[in-house]
Amino acid sequence: MPSSASEVKWAFSSICPGVFCNKQVTTQCWTCVFLPTVVTMRILIVILPVFKNAPFMTCPPHKPNPSSQPRLLSNTLSRRRFLVRSACAAFMPLVVPGSVLGLNGMTSPSNRFRFGAIGVGNRARAILPNFLSFGELKFVAVSDSRADRLKSAKELIDRHYGDEGCRAHSDFRELLERRDIDGVLIATGNRWHGLASIYAARSGKDIYCEKPVTLTIGEGRALVDTCRQFGTIYQAGTQRRSTASYRFARDMVRQGKIGRLHTVEMQVWKGPAVKHQETKPVPEGWNYDLWLGQSPWHPFVPARVNSWQYFWDTAEGVLTDMGCHYTDLMQWTLGTDHTGPVDFEGEAEWPDPKEFFSDTPLTATCRCRYANGVQGVMYQRGEFKERYLRYVGDEGWIQVDDETDVVTAHPTSILSLKESGVVGWGDASDHVRNLLECMRSRSRTLCPPETAHRSITICQAWNIGLRLGKKLQWDPVKETFDVAEANRMRYRQPRAPWRI
């Protein structure tokens, strides 16, 4: 068994000395060992018949000598020919396809990353096509606590590759134990994002994890520390950083096109209220205990399971689930990826517990302030299609409509600088490409753990303040509040047997 991340992550150590690939491996890869031998033997097959009468292929002329043993000499020569031609014949049936050599735009197997998917529900189905579009990776495993999703995900992967090479694991820990897997896509519910990422890093896997990346502030710090310890290449699924419209807005702010930035406005949609519902038997094929993971035990209630985003135990509502996209962009634009605001406050409307059993805000207005005076304002209101991000300066503003990816600005002359015909945030291919490039170079991704942790911390701090009904001061260096009760809410003890 490996004793360290360096032993597990075999793709980390040194450059292959072979001529057929530049894959990073600890020893020369099989392609580079095997193919030169194959090519050499194939050449011999072609040229040997041409030189069959050459001196070096026959016995030198000699006069008969009664004392010689011609039959023995003849046998010796035949044996030589036999050994050479037998060695050649052993390789004659072998055909090397272009894909093995990385020809015709294809990626050779020695250069292909092997991936596994943990959680193959709706979000995984939405982003998998972006991953599958890259020939330099191949999904060889899927995992889910629901048998129906596990079966259909394996079928989808096998159908894409035209084989049956994808293995289905009902427990993601089995997938993580496999040493042939380089990276994982984690697209579970929010309650599993942080803990599954920590386990994956300890298993030597590189990671693409959907947002929000953790359930609590404390879990986020543990994720950062674990990835640093094991040299994990990690990409958070806040793919708007890889989207042209948001990059353009950031660049215009940084170039001073709207003057001095003083406010960042963000809007997500109004949260639903989930009505009380009776307990039902766990459906066949569900590992409900594994589905719950670290969150407290609750009887199986379809409304709670199907709307898990709106319960505190399994998520933190719309404010966190979607809000972290916009706080991430705010942090990016301000250049504060390794720090954060210094105070938080807000007001919220909550579901009536007499009628509803969801317990996250319906509407909210939240504010945070940075040490330089810039203020962030998050509105939770309106409809899903009305979400946006706006940067406001003392000489103008620029806004990205998240539903349509349309950029508006004042003064409108700013828009003349924008390129047209670019891909929107719905296509995460550039974000996936950034991950793969960083896996090869072992460099930081666009959304590494520290960056993702700092972005989600803003939403988590807002939620803590709303639940306590208090304004909170925050020390972004020590990551502590000025209120003891708030500090206790930075972390939740996972339900046994799960541990960080």
Which labels suit this protein?
single chain; 500 residues; alpha/beta; Rossmann fold; Dihydrodipicolinate Reductase, domain 2; nine-stranded mixed sheet; six-stranded parallel sheet; 17 helices; 15% strand; disordered N terminus
Mind explaining what this structure looks like?
By secondary structure, the protein is α/β, with parallel strands linked by helices. It folds into 3 domains: 1-58 and 73-102, no CATH class; 103-239, Rossmann fold (3-Layer(aba) Sandwich), CATH 3.40.50.720; 240-425 and 450-481, 2-Layer Sandwich (Dihydrodipicolinate Reductase, domain 2). The chain has 17 helices and 15 strands. It has helices at residues 5-8, 30-47, 70-89, 98-101, 122-132, 147-161, 172-177, 190-202, 217-230, 244-254, 288-292, 302-306, 318-321, 323-334, 429-441, 449-468, 484-488, and strands at residues 113-118, 137-143, 167-169, 183-186, 206-209, 234-236, 261-268, 343-349, 363-369, 375-380, 388-393, 396-401, 407-410, 472-475, 480-481. The strands form 2 sheets. The chain has a 9-stranded mixed β-sheet with strand order 13-12-11-7-10-9-8-14-15. The protein has a 6-stranded parallel β-sheet with strand order 3-2-1-4-5-6, sandwiched between helices. A hairpin with a 5-residue loop joins strand 9 (363-369) and strand 10. Helix 8 (190-202) runs parallel beside helix 9 and helix 10 (244-254) packs parallel to helix 14 (323-334). The longest helix has 20 residues, at 70-89. The radius of gyration is 30 Å and the shape is globular. The model is unreliable at 1-28, 50-77 and 96-101 (pLDDT under 50).
